[in-house]
Amino acid sequence: MPTSTHHSSSSHEDQLLLPNDHRDQPGSNSSYSLFRAQTRRFLTSKPGHYAVLLLVSLDVSSIFADFVISLYMCEHSKENLNDLERIQEVLGIVGLVFSCLFMAELVASVLAFGWRYVSINHA
Length: 123
Hints:
Blueprint: H1 12-17, H2 30-43, H3 46-75, H4 82-113
Helix pairs in contact: 2-4, 3-4
């Protein structure tokens, strides 16, 4: 005889998955509900967490590289440093790209989990 594995206790992660979920309301857009479910699934999965960690690591690495180049340029201000200035410009653009990716992740999180995701009190 099959048994049910339903848990009555609710974890913090479960609470994040439920707020503002309007799938059962009349007139809800099924493709939007599907998007929300798939986004929630990805953002709470190991690959999703690893993707965010990879982006953060790359962002920190580019910031550190920019810092090291700035220190080097301060020490060698009389030399021709055009290449390093171009590298710093590229690193600035890379930093902007990472900021845009993190903003997209935040928007996706709000769409997937609802506004309660960014609230201070999840109760």
